[in-house]
Structure prediction request, 200 residues.
Amino acid sequence: MSLELAIVTYHGDSAAESAFGTLRERAPRAPWTHEAALVQHHHNDRIALHGTVAGRYVSVDEEDHLSQPGAARGAIAGGVIGLLLLGGPAGLAPGLVIGGIVGAEAAHPDEVEAEPGALVDDLRTAVPKGCSAIVLLAAPDHVDEMLALLAERSGEVVRRPLSDREMARFEAALAETPSASTGPRDEGEAPPSLGDPTAT
Prediction:
C-alpha cells in the first residue's frame, strides 16, 4: 500500500501541539491520530520530535543530549570522591551532583540514545526554524481525513506520496525505535506531546 507524507507547519513552538489537540478532539477514534508525530524546530536549529512515524514511536530531543549511563557512573564516582575529599556525608551530595553532570556530558557517543538521524535531518529542512509541525505518514484516505478537519489558514500544508525508495529510507532510519501503539486503550490515551516523551 502506498503511503503519503503530510507536514502541516505552524509558526511558534507549541502551535502544532495545540492544533493537533483540537483535531484529535474532533475525531478521537480516527486512525490517523495514532499515525502522527509532532516536531519543533528551535531557533538554535535543534529538533524535537515525538509521536508515530511509519508505525514506530519516535522520541528525539536534541536539546537533551545527555547520557544516562554516563550520568549514573559519574554520580557514583563523584559521591565517593566527595566522601573522601570533603570528609564524610557532607561531601556526598555535591559529589553526586557534580559527578552526574560531568559523567553525562563526558560519556562516549555510543552511550547517547540512538536517534533516527536521517529523518531528523529531513525535518530540519522541511520545517523552518521557530516553527512546529504535525507530521503524518499514512494511507492517502487517512491523510484526507486529517486535512479535512483543518480550519482555513490553519498551518501550511505540504503533501506528497512517498516512493518505495523513500519509504525504505524511513524504515532504515527508524529500525532501532520501538513499535508504536495501534490504537487507544479502554482507559484512554494521551496524544503525542512535545513536552512529554512518554506520550504515544
Summary: The chain has two domains: 4-64+114-173, 68-111. Residues 19 and 154 are 8 Å apart (CA to CA). DSSP finds six helices and six strands in the chain.
